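Q: Given only this backbone (230 positions), what sequence would you predict?
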């Protein structure tokens, strides 16, 4: 598969060999406790470009965003669809970000109970994705996995079909799955070794390169990702 040439506005996914070209779409997935939000912040830390960041559940940690001059932090929860369309487009035009990060795209819009959830989720996803394409902006979002992953045998590694939102198997150019054995209290991996503070980053889908697994370390106390392991 042909890899697009690197440009100064490419967004790199930390501790991997994956680089996201302009207007591409990436989903970072994982079960609770795997460090998805921490990894999204790591992306911001390692990419010195203008970022429009939506972290609805991280308002108490807003200092992380305010201390970074390249980041415009938004806390806007439960828009309706029309407000999303106009409000997001206007913010993109004003701030002109190189990339947008949304930690929980489903928290941007109030999904009405009693209506087809998948249909509403698709509309939100298509709207945001289309806007980013129109403005030549890279889109990175977090994605939930089914709880059935926790009951899986073996290492309980994430797979593409575990995504709760089925449309995320189709639209993104890249899907990265984050895994930490320590979350499951696994003390011995398939090779008989203690995984300790290791984390695995699974390239579950990659339109710009191979599917492979990357290893890195995490800080158990503070949960940031620390370094790549070759």
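A: Predicted residues:
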């Amino acid at each position: 598969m042909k890899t697009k040439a690197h440009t100064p506005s490419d967004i790199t996914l930390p501790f991997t060999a994956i680089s996201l070209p302009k207007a591409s779409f990436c989903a970072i997935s994982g079960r609770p406790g795997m460090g998805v939000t921490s990894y999204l912040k790591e992306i911001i830390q390692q990419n010195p470009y203008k970022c429009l960041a939506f972290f609805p559940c991280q308002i108490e940690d807003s200092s992380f965003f305010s201390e970074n001059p390249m980041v415009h932090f938004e806390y806007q929860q439960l828009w309706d669809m029309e407000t999303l369309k106009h409000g997001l487009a206007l913010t993109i035009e004003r701030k002109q970000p190189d990339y947008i990060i949304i930690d929980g795209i489903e928290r941007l819009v109030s999904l009405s109970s009693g209506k087809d959830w998948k249909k509403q989720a698709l509309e939100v996803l298509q709207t945001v994705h289309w806007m980013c394409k129109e403005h030549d902006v890279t889109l990175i979002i977090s994605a939930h996995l089914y709880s059935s992953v926790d009951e899986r045998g073996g290492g309980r590694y994430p797979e593409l079909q575990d995504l709760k939102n089925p449309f995320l198997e189709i639209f993104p150019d890249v899907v990265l799955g984050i895994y930490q054995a320590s979350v499951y209290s696994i003390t011995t991996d398939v090779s008989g070794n203690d995984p300790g503070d290791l984390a695995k980053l699974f390239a579950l889908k990659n339109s710009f390169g191979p599917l492979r697994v990357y290893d890195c370390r995490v800080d158990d106390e503070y949960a940031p990702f620390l370094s790549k392991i070759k």
